[in-house]
Amino acid sequence: MGYLKAVLNDDKNLEIKNLKILISTGKQLKRDVSKYEKELKKYDGQAVSKERPKIIKLNEIENVKKIDNIKKPKVDDNADSSKYTIKAVVSRDNMIIIDFYDSITKDFVDFKEDKTSNTFQDIYQLKGNFKDAYPTKLSINGVDQIVIKQKDSKTLEILFEDKTNLKTIYFINRNRVVLKVLDLNKKKNKATISKAVKVYKPGLNRVVVLDAGHGGKDSGAIGSEDKMYEKYTVFNVTKYLESVLKERGYKVYLTRNSDRFIKVRNRTVLANDKHADIFVSIHANAAHKSKIKELQGIETFFLSPARSERAKRVAALENQSDISNMSGSTQKAFLESLNRPRITASHKLSIDIQRNMLYETRLLHKDVEDGGVREGPFWVLVGAQMPSVLIEIGYITHPKEGKRLFNKKYQEALAVGIANGIDSYFAKNP
User: Fold this and answer.
1) Residue 278 belongs to what H/E stretch?
2) Over the stretch 31-62, which tens digit does the pLDDT of each residue have?
3) C-alpha span between 415 and 248 (Å, rounded)
4) pTM of the predicted model, to two decimals?
5) 56: left (phi > 0), else alpha (psi -120 to 50), else beta?
6) EC no. (predicted)?
7) Which end of the chain lies in a sparser environment, N or C, as judged by fewer CB atoms within 10 Å?
8) 221 CB neighbour count, 10 Å cutoff
């Protein structure tokens, strides 16, 4: 038991030598020696004895328990050894060290476990008496409570109490008993993990460019009341969305940070320059005077040749602020040549955004109408080299829905719904 002797006597050189013996012999016997290798790393660079190592028995490898850095406790050498049998009791690191005046045997230590309604107890009773049992305070970092008391004139009790079931062991060497708490590092790590708030960041390493439609001299669609301009409500929703996405770890850029006009054909330039993963353009819809009370609802569009008169009408409304020299047939030919995988990805993004917008807004108003996911020839999306969508957050011309679009809570609900849709898209299409 050379290693045990070394650690009990605080002989580091001898301890290092015996650790190397344990590792070498253990490997020969194909035993797990990782715990000894880990212990040896603590002494990297320290001098060791160069005496020739001796071969030890297998049962020594299996049964020896490490005790590190034990120093002799300060004691009162003038204490009356005829009256008291225990010289000193101290706590150090993860150990309690008890020194007796005379040599002892294993019969001097009795151990038992107990459990209360919310704690576990390891109880050690030692044959002996200690004059400073009452004033002595014992503590080990990571153990809830350690109590020392003279149970009777012949028995000193040391109790470990904790919310978790501690693993404690003890060693005896001549006139010393060492009580050691194992795996305290694991306990601390578990506590740290349980208390830590896990923040999931779905947007890490994702770049999103948001485009608030219209702006400046281009007011967009106009509602029934004074200054109910599309450019204002879509900008507010875009700013709320920017904030939500940034909280979720996305890198977000805006095509406009103020009320200014940007040509439709220039809005995707930023997205391409920033190598965005997706491009999202936010707008509000409008109906003809004859259908103001009829048309309402949220719609999400992706770029492709239009397949419905409704999609063509909405696209024409959003495209009118930009002047294009393409004829109708040229535009159609151009749209037919678009990258099909990008259209497919844009379609998937549209579905996720539409579904999540409806869910969030219907928490506030159950009658929010689903305008669906549609294809359309929107020129603001043409230049994007990544999946892109155009969202119509509602009809600004509708008597009820138009007013909702200028309500802060409703704008925030729209933003959260769009953000959730973006999260869903990336989760399913990494």
Assistant:
1) strand 278-285
2) 777 777 777 776 665 444 333 333 333 333 33
3) 13
4) 0.53
5) beta
6) 3.5.1.28
7) C
8) 24
